[in-house]
């Protein structure tokens, strides 16, 4: 019993500390240590028995593994965002959007930009860096509360695009080798669910922002915000879109051959293209590159701290037992699969992590039962993008704290509404439609 209390208690404590603004580099290893001690894990590898997991190795393997896999992509994405800001491209695009569709649609423009990049293959971690400069400019011109920017980025990145049929994001690809499906599995239902999440989420976000504005909330500038010089000449909005298009095309073209490494090529190409089309508008190339690199270090450290927590959790006996229970839920296999994936993703703070752990166990079990593998693929993909967005999730922390510089207590409520509740409802819709034979 103590082991389970420690497992779930450490997660609750991590969420609480995150919401209170405690630095993740402190709270993540601290709560991971609680989970380890209550589950009988040794602290050091030297004090552990042969083949026994220990706190230090489990945490650092998760931490360093994430940094090793994602650092260059984080850096390329952060620098790309800074280059778009420095060349004036982000301001140019945002002003053009405001002029063409009006400030009242500024929120939808941010969601759309994030969605296009995500469905184009850019990692959800990187999309936030890429779109944020335009988002901050749009929200400022529209005088909308900036605490809703993370929600807009999240809606466009980790809901209807990340888990839809055809998406190049890894959350849509992990089930393929286990189920023998394709990235387009269950595409008919996927279209319906994606439309629901996109339209429903956008309307809900707009409603929340309108309520906040009626209460007197406005855009509040910060000293760290880009200084907008109204007299500054900006590049053409059409040319300013070219770097985004380059990122989208290159990541799409080379995704199959280079995998996630295509993102490094795409984002680097986007930086080069931004300077090619807007170099004369740039302020300081060296300062921009340095600022982007430092931003990437902070962002990846915060995210890796949470991944380290997940590494310890996965090594505990109570987690193994929990996974066994979750993967053997009786009844409708689609419901069982969805619940198992969502819970495990919530515990590890990662949609892809939840799938990676559960799929080797779920797939053979449900295939033997004769479950429609395409329906299971799509249901699992959508469900994985729900509880992974609890306050301690890696993407959540990166987007709210590191990219947008907001506090959880201000930004998480709308963020969680769109990235947790909307995908949960979307999962239910998918299960109902599949059960009806669609």
From TrEMBL:
Top-level division of the source organism's lineage: Bacteria
GO cellular-component term (any): plasma membrane
Keyword Transcription: no
TM segment ranges: 24-44, 56-80, 105-136, 148-165, 185-205, 238-254, 260-277, 289-313, 333-351, 415-436
Keyword Lyase belongs to the record: no
Listed Pfam families: GntP_permease (PF02447)
UniProtKB keywords: Membrane, Transmembrane, Transmembrane helix
Any one GO molecular function term: gluconate transmembrane transporter activity
Name of the molecule in the record: Citrate transporter
Organism, scientific name: Lysinibacillus sphaericus (Bacillus sphaericus)
Lineage of origin: Bacteria, Bacillati, Bacillota, Bacilli, Bacillales
């Amino acid at each position: 019993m103590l082991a389970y209390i420690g497992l779930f208690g450490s997660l609750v404590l991590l969420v609480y500390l995150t919401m209170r603004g405690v630095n993740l580099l402190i709270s993540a290893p601290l709560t991971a240590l609680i989970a380890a001690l209550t589950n009988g894990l040794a602290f050091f590898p030297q004090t552990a028995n042969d083949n026994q997991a220990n706190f230090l190795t489990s945490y650092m393997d998760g931490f360093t593994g994430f940094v090793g896999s994602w650092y260059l992509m984080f850096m390329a994405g952060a620098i790309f965002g800074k280059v778009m800001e420095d060349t004036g491209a982000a301001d140019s695009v945002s002003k053009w959007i405001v002029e063409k569709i009006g400030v009242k649609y500024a929120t939808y423009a941010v969601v759309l930009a994030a969605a296009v990049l995500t469905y184009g293959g850019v990692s959800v971690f990187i999309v936030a860096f890429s779109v944020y400069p335009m988002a901050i400019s749009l929200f400022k011109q529209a005088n909308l509360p900036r605490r809703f920017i993370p929600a807009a980025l999240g809606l466009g990145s980790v809901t209807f695009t990340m888990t839809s049929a055809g998406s190049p994001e890894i959350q849509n690809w992990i089930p393929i080798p286990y189920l023998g499906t394709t990235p387009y599995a269950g595409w008919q239902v996927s279209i319906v669910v994606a439309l629901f999440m996109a339209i429903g989420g956008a309307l809900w976000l707009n409603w929340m922002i309108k309520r906040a504005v009626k209460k007197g909330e406005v855009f509040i500038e910060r000293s760290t915000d880009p200084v907008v010089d109204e007299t500054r000449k900006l590049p053409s909005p059409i040319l300013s879109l070219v770097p985004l298009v380059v990122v989208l095309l290159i990541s799409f073209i080379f995704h199959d051959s280079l995998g996630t490494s295509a993102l490094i090529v795409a984002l680097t190409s986007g930086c080069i293209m931004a300077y090619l089309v807007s170099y004369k508008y740039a302020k300081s190339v060296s300062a921009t590159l340095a600022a982007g690199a430092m931003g990437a270090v902070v962002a990846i450290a915060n995210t890796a701290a949470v991944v380290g927590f997940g590494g310890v959790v996965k090594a505990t006996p109570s987690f193994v037992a929990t996974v066994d229970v979750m993967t053997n839920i009786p009844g409708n296999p689609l419901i069982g699969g969805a619940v198992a994936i969502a819970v495990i993703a919530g515990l590890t703070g990662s949609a892809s992590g939840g799938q990676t752990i559960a799929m080797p166990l779920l797939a053979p079990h449900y295939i033997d039962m004769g479950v429609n593998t395409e329906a299971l693929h799509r249901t699992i993909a959508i469900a994985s993008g729900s509880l992974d967005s609890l306050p301690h999730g890696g993407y959540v922390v990166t987007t709210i704290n590191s990219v947008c510089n907001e506090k959880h207590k201000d930004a998480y409520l709308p963020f969680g509404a769109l990235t947790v509740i909307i995908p949960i409802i979307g999962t239910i819709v998918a299960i109902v439609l599949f059960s009806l034979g669609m």
